[in-house]
Design brief:
The protein is mainly beta and 268 residues long. The protein is built from two helices and 23 strands. The protein has two domains: 121 residues, Domain of unknown function (DUF427) (Metal Binding Protein, Guanine Nucleotide Exchange Factor, Chain A, Beta Complex); 126 residues, Metal Binding Protein, Guanine Nucleotide Exchange Factor, Chain A (Beta Complex), CATH 2.170.150.40.
Length: 268
């Protein structure tokens, strides 16, 4: 008789938190010091945040490195009860850890991720793979699929990309992103910037801005020169924010979506 698939159980607390156990072995370090080494982490989703964080049993945390916060951050992390500073090798990181108010999460401690908030633990590992920014959401999927669709991209009425060999990247909760070979992009109309971002699903991106005088957002074009293996097919290809350019796919104009990036682009 075949075994039933493993059923995940996402639970809700009265405070509006969602959480579920994770089977991953997770470690977090500050410099060379391991602060967390857990085989029983919980994934926690806060109501106002689209991505999860980990919370760890106290017995799997180096509590000797934690100090009650000198200046607790009120109004953050869904009514957190206690904040902690971390002291490692004489360096103090304020408000780097906290506890959630939910009874379900009693006895667990969560941590800031340096590459996301600018403070907290700076190296994280799931099993033997280093991960960045935030934990990967087990309910989110990212697929990069080669295609023969005809994709055109315009900025301020000028065609900057025209291809019949894009890679379409499908990411749960976001619009399709169209990655275009460099040979099919007018790179002479773009200027590289020093902006970069990190993604736990794709890697580290480099950016370009529009070279013209039009009132368009900065850093609206990006590429992953060395993406994570799961999306290796987008290596070196060029993508554009659908929110800020005009896309035509197979002769049909794509409506500009409104996403969490729309506000960021409007203020960049």
């Amino acid at each position: 008789m075949s075994a039933l698939p493993h059923a995940r159980s996402v639970r809700t607390t009265p405070e509006g938190l969602l959480w579920e156990p994770s089977d991953r072995w997770v470690r977090g370090r500050k410099g060379d010091v391991t602060v967390v080494d857990s085989r029983h982490p919980l994934l926690v989703w806060e109501p106002a945040l689209p991505v999860p964080t980990y919370a760890f049993p106290r017995e799997e945390v180096r509590e000797d490195l934690l100090r009650p916060a000198r200046n607790p951050r009120t109004g953050t992390h869904t009514g957190s009860r206690i904040f902690y500073d971390i002291e490692v090798d004489g360096e103090v990181v304020e408000n780097a850890a906290w506890t959630f108010p939910a009874d379900d999460l009693a006895g667990h401690i969560a941590f800031e991720w340096f590459l996301r908030s600018g403070r907290g633990l700076d190296h994280w590992y799931e099993e033997e793979e280093e991960i960045f920014i935030h934990p990967r959401d087990p309910h989110k999927r990212v697929d990069a699929l080669p295609s023969s669709r005809h994709v055109q991209v315009e900025i301020d009425g000028t065609v900057v990309a025209d291809t019949r060999r894009p890679v379409l990247l499908f990411e749960t909760g976001l619009p399709v992103r169209y990655y275009v070979p460099r040979e099919d992009v007018r790179l002479d109309l773009l200027v590289p910037t020093d902006h970069s971002t990190g993604c736990p699903y794709k890697g580290t991106a480099e950016y370009w801005s529009w070279r013209g005088d039009a009132d368009v957002p900065a850093n609206l074009v990006w590429s992953y020169p060395d993406p994570l293996p799961a999306v290796a097919t987008v290596t070196g290809l060029i993508a554009f924010y659908n929110e800020a350019v005009d896309l035509t796919v197979d002769g049909e104009r794509v409506e500009r979506p409104v996403t969490p990036f729309s506000k960021t682009l409007s203020t960049s």
